[in-house]
Amino acid sequence: MDELQYQMDLLKAMNQKLSLKDRMYQMIFDATDSAYLYYSFDKKEVTTMGKWKEFFDFDIKEVKEMEQLFEVVEEQYALPLREALFIEKKGEVDSRIECQLKNKKSWFQFCCKVEYQNQQPFEKMITIRNVTKEKFQNEELLYMAYYDNLTGLYNRNNFVKLLGEYVRKAGENNGIVSVLIIDIDDFRKINDGLGIVAGDEVVQQFGGFLKELCNNNIIACHLSSDIFCMAIYEPTGSCSVESVYKSIQKRLREPFFLLDGRAINITVSVGVAEYPEAATTALELINCAEIVMYKGKEKGKNAIQYFDTPILNEFLNSVELENKLKQAVFDNNFILHFQPQFDTDNKRLRGMEALIRWRDDDGHMIRPDVFIPIAEKNGAIIPIGNWVVEQSIKNFVKWRKQYGIPFVMSINISSVQCGRDDFVDFVMDTIRKYNVNPDEIELEITESILIEDFASVIDKLRQLRDFGVRISLDDFGTGFSSLSYLKKLPINTLKIDKSFIDTVLTDSPTRIITESIIDMVSALGFESVAEGVENEQQYNYLNEIGCDVIQGYLLGKPMTAEQIEDMLQNMS
Ligand code: C2E
Ligand code: MG
Ligand code: MG
User: pTM of the prediction?
Assistant: First the structure.
């Protein structure tokens, strides 16, 4: 009896120990993020553990019930999963497979570990991990590596690679590849006026439209901000550049509707370069197309510009010029010429205009209308413009003292200079530094100055006017010449552009306009200056119609400082 009791106690103790281990394993399985499926090959029994119930809404107790697994995974994974779970390759202990469920939401990784006894598979443990998050993150990374987030088009890197493929293929088959750069006109106005979210919406919708034009032979990418690039392999028929451009034009006749219901119409400028004519590599082709697009834009927006060699040469020259210009600023290779202005009625010296000249390393004189626009683009206009202001005031002070003849020094001011916050202070400080009467200094501005930020420009000009500086509106008649803004401008003088003077005697509409301008200027209390007066007839006529001041080759060409000194010497 004692022996029996002992056996029973032993069994109880062993059972307790076993259920303790069971509980411990259960806890371990529950604590992991995986589900487990165990089966023994001889008993054909299957046990599920861990997160199984969270992952699947069915349980498996026998091998044949594992069929349910193959039914919930996407079709293409059913067979590989079956192979991984059931087919034991000799000596293989570990196999792994990732499957997506039919609901498209979840991804699971199945990892099988087989134990062998006497070289026969004995038992198997399948660990199942939910890898949905990693999968989607990887997909997102993959997407970001190849596509543009905003438009769904290819991104730049991927596009360049694919374009490279087109070029290689065309090289092998004597083929053609056309590259189109498409730039939304006045995109800044959309961004500034309606906000960048609206700008993004337009880019997104237009990008989506370009995607629709893509096929086996056409690819497109979002290059940057409002610039897109397309490449066409063998551009013929419905895939020709003309046909693609026509489709774009047709779409743009209709507006894009923003989420808030606003309708926006856009136009685009397109530049086209072709392999092998324009360039032989992907990047060069994009570059050439971009150059011609910008050149085309200068002539007018909403148009297509095809590559031609003179355009490229012109661009290369401007790049060379830009580099030389940077050096010239460094070396201060500029000089000032001065062109006298005379009162019309008595031909007395009224003033002189400082005109900059650049002598490049080869001794060539480069005209300001060639290099000033480049200097405005690359920022060199600031040191150059400041130098002109200081240098002309310095000369003025010297001549005023030396010859005692009163006159006004006119200085051309670029819109970029005027846009600077420190512009007003700089001018005032320089005037104070040389102790000149502000009334003897005149700043010549053009209408382009007003396009940027009308209110702030007017404010700056007003401060300078209040300080005593004279303001002159240059090249009147060449810009938008709206009469309504004239009365808002704090100006003293208006310069009628040379193009009017050129034809004033031969073209009667020009004559009528010129006379009206002079009448209006006088009525507004401004002074009128005629630019580019080259002959006596023009002079006599301008005198007759009451133009106040004459500037031009007839009475004085732009001169060096020495020549001006001779002129002043003769006058005194
Ligand atoms: P602008 O201010 O209208 O200057 C008048 C231009 O007409 C000058 O050309 C002058 O040489 C030219 N001109 C004057 N009278 C006659 C004439 O009777 N016949 C002909 N054919 N031309 C005449 P320039 O010196 O080549 O200057 C061209 C433009 O470059 C200037 O036009 C001005 O806008 C700009 N510029 C010149 N110097 C400066 C400067 O220091 N700063 C800035 N921002 N611009 C400047
Ligand atoms: Mg001028
Ligand atoms: Mg002018």
Answer: 0.57
Decide if 232 contacts 180 (C-beta within 8 A): yes
100-133: b (≥16 Cβ within 10 Å) or e = bbeeeebbbbbbbebeeeeeeeebbebbbbbbee
Distance 532 CA to ligand 3 centre (A): 8
Q: What's the token pair of residue 252?
A: 């743009």
Q: What pLDDT digit, counting tens, does each position of 493-542 carry?
A: 999 999 999 999 999 889 998 999 999 899 889 999 999 999 999 999 99
Q: What is the mean pLDDT of residues 209-223?
A: 96
Give the pocket of ligand 1 (CB within 6 Å). 339, 354-356, 367-369, 372, 385, 388, 412-414, 444, 474-475, 531-534, 551-553, 558
Give pLDDT tens digits for 185-215: 999 888 888 888 999 999 999 999 999 999 9
Nearest protein CA to atom 45 of ligand 1, as residue? 412
Q: What is the pLDDT of residues 365-391, one digit of tens each?
A: 888 988 898 888 878 899 999 999 999
Rounded mean pLDDT, 155-183? 95
Determine phi and psi for 278, rounding to 5 degrees.
-85, -40
- Ligand (nearest to CA of 476): 3
Question: How would you write 306-374 as a 3-class SS string?
Answer: ECCHHHHHHHHHHHHHHHHHHHHHHHCCEEEEEEEEEECCCCCEEEEEEEEEEECCCCCEECHHHHHHH
- Cα–Cα distances in angstroms (integers) from residue 23 to residues 9, 233, 314, in the given order: 21, 67, 84
Q: Measured between alpha carbons, how far is 267 from 443 in angstroms, rounded to an integer? A: 37
- Atom of ligand 1 minimally distant from the CA of 414: 44
**Closest C-alpha residue for ligand 1 atom 13:** 532
For the beta carbon of residue 306, count every other beta carbon within 10 angstroms: 17
In our burial notation (b when 16+ CB lie closer than 10 A, e otherwise), range 36-72 reads: bbebebeeeebebbbbbeebbeeebeebeebeebeeb
CA 253 / ligand 1 centre spacing (Å): 42
pLDDT band at 142 (very low <50, low <70, confident <90, very high): confident
Which pLDDT score, from 0 to 100, does residue 546 have?
96
Helix (H, G, I), strand (E, B) or coil at 199: helix
pLDDT of residue 189: 86
The residue type of 213 is L
With b meaning 16 or more CB within 10 Å and e meaning fewer, what string describes 476-505?
Answer: bbebeeeeeebeebebbbbbbbbebbeebe
Q: Does 553 score more than 90 pLDDT?
A: yes
Q: How large is the average pLDDT for residues 346-353? A: 97
**Nearby residues for ligand 2 (ion, Cβ within 5 Å):** 412, 444, 474
Protein residue closest via CA to atom 10 of ligand 1:
558
Composition of the chain by helix, strand, coil, percent to 5: 50, 25, 25
What's the gap in Å between 353 CA and the centre of ligand 2? 7
Q: How far is it, in rounded angstroms, from Cα 210 to Cα 190?
A: 20
Best substitution site from 332, 387, 412 to test ligand 1's pocket, by max atoms within 8 Å of Cβ? 412
